[in-house]
Amino acid sequence: MRIVLLAIFTLFAVQTPALAGESLVVKTSPYSVKKTIDRRETIFNKKGITVFARVDHAAGAAKVGKTLPPTELIIFGNPKLGTPLMKSSRKIGIALPLKILAWREDGKVKLAYTKPARLAQRYGVVDRDPVIQKITGALNNLTNAAIKK
Q1: Of 33, 61, 73, 129, whose Cβ has the fewest other Cβ atoms within 10 Å?
Q2: pTM for this prediction
Q3: pLDDT tens, 10-43?
Q4: Buried b vs exposed e over 73-93: b needs ≥16 C-beta within 10 Å?
Q5: Residue 88 in contact with residue 110, Cβ under 8 Å?
Q6: What does the alpha-carbon distance between residue 132 and residue 57 come to, in Å, rounded to a whole number?
Q7: Which of 141, 105, 107, 110 is nearest to 29 (CA)?
Q8: Which of 88, 91, 108, 119 is nearest to 24 (CA)?
Q9: DSSP assignment of 11-30, as one string?
């Protein structure tokens, strides 16, 4: 029984990082966490994309006496693109609006978001490929603009 449990644990431990890698797009930013998210927000505002919230995880940790390197999340969306996805599967609403996370790790600032195709797969959106492709392209272009020197 212990061997079976160990084998199951090992299987999940080995696969989890791979799955995370397949689900996320991670880019390196030359700016601080705050400036990376500020730039992201400015671009969203210029493009008419709604910014619903910003979450400063490091500030939250500090409020309870903990420390966390700079880590910020921006929550944003565009109902013109999100609504068709939700018409296909309301469950995708748990992942919408979209999120981008920026954090400092090993002296570098990283920017990450979940691949739209992975969200569609996870929540059973099978009939909206053009929308998923449009969101994918937009996220790529918008995040590249935010980290461009």
Answers
A1: 129
A2: 0.83
A3: 333 333 444 456 899 999 999 999 999 999 999 9
A4: ebebbbeebbeebbebbeebe
A5: no
A6: 29
A7: 110
A8: 119
A9: HHHHHHHHHHHHHEEEEEES
